[in-house]
Predict the structure of C2H2-type domain-containing protein.
Amino acid sequence: MVYKCDDCHYATDIFLSLQTHRWTHVKKRPYRCRLCNYGSKTLQNLKIHFRRVHTKERPFVCPHFPCKFAGAYSQDLKSHIRNRHSKNDKTVSLDHLNNNRSRSHTHLKEIPRVLI
Ligand SMILES: [Zn+2]
Ligand SMILES: [Zn+2]
Ligand SMILES: [Zn+2]
């Protein structure tokens, strides 16, 4: 009987040797996924892996209506917005400026009326 390591090419016919060998991986990546062989150095990475691979959860939803994009990583959403909405963002900020300007215009008109 040959015991093989799941994470590398190590193989041995002594089960205890495999167990000892496995510790070298566990020490490096102590956070192990319970559904696959994935191991991570940090709990955060394991959580991200779990979300992306096993639950398909995508919590980072695009704020631009009616876009339905959702990403597993905040980085995904950032690059999506940069690629798809960078033009829209400019229009939005221009509209915002125009609104402010027209608002200040009405404000200016109101002042003389009060004076009269
Ligand atoms: Zn190994
Ligand atoms: Zn996994
Ligand atoms: Zn979008």
